[in-house]
Amino acid sequence: MKNRFYLKLLTIVFLMLALLLPQSFILGLVHDRTAWREQAYSTIERSWPGEQTLAAPVLVIPYRLTYNNKETITDEDGNRREKLKEITVNKALYIIPKQLTIRSTLDNSLRHRGIYAIPVYNSRIEVTGEFSNQALLEFLASHQDSQITWDKPQLSVLVSDQRGIAAQPSLMWNGEQIAFQPSSHLPGTEQGMSAALPELASTQAARLPFAFTLELHGMQALHFALVAENTDVQTIANWPHPSFSGRLLPETHDINAQGFTARWRASSFSFNVAGALAQCGEGHCASLLEPAVGFELVQPVDIYQQAERSIKYAVLFIVLTFVALILFELLKRLRIHPIQYLLVGAALLVFYLLLVSLSEHIAFLYAYSTGAAACTALLTVYFGGILHSGKLGSLLGLGLSGLYAVLYVILQSEGSALLMGSMLTFVVLAALMLATRHLDWYALTGQTGQPQTTLATVEDAPK
After folding, report:
1. Which of 85, 243, 421, 441 qualifies as a FRET site for 61, CA 20 to 30 Å off?
2. Which domain holds residue 75?
3. Is residue 345 part of a domain?
């Protein structure tokens, strides 16, 4: 009896380890489905603009600078003399807005690729602000001894995916309306648009107000690069599940069932704007997109993430169920075949397969409830058969239902999932230990317990 019990226990432990293989298979299936979803995203992105980043307009003034440079040369006789050499360089002066205000309104919808739904948006972005020609005056003052030939200035707006510009916008510049043209014409990136400007005043300080409205399409995320001395960004969207991202969280935000609003305010002290402009002057204007703030449109329930988290609790469900069966087998003097243990473990794992497949077509709550109800009903009937007691089968089924309910609560509590999972494990272990603390395991396994030597016996022994 003793050897048979330990052999049976060893077999059950082996079955538990063997069930880890289909558990890993289901986890791999979840990862595959996640990869296919990302592939669906990429497929839609090829025919619809992707994540968008809009950079504040930059005033670009190309110029040709000619100056004399002294050089020391040595002739054939070894005499050294100085020679003036005329040098001409072509560069551009980049000026950021003194004040920038962005008001964005997003209308979100879902695009489907097979069973996958991807959030896309149409946004209306109103941009207003003003430049100052102070940087131009300072540049002229520092190059009084040089000859400067100015080229036609332009206003460049960077958009990370130019395909998203739905209609040709017009720029209101200092009271004059100018049409934008495709391409930013900035070194290092062509994505965006630009507008040719009239000649700027270079004799006295002046403010240069501007405004334009942009209709921009995109998917999943929208960011604003705050390349200005002072920036105020406000957005309104009808998507109730934003995830704020970027280098600065919104100063204020409000999220409800109808959508969200958010507002950011920043200055040139908030980001290294000067560094980004310096890189642009060296031919890397894509760096202007980096100091950005914004949000992502996340799905309300990531079914694959939740399914993956639930599968990690499969071992706990299998261990608890097998322990309960072992106890009933010992207490009721029943004989449960290892094949029956294997079938119970398989039924517990089928729940996760049902969860993944159903949640791709119906809401996660309904998929979870359907899978849990189906597996619990099946196991309740099966428990009643192998334990020869409908009452015991219902008791085990009720306990399994409680575990599924607790697991769902854990899955919904993302921030405290680890804490709740640890508490569940502790409570179950404590309940199991307290419920079996008076059991005579030697008697249950057909062994004879060894008598214990008491303290009184030791003291009364002959010396």
Report:
1. 85
2. 51-297
3. yes
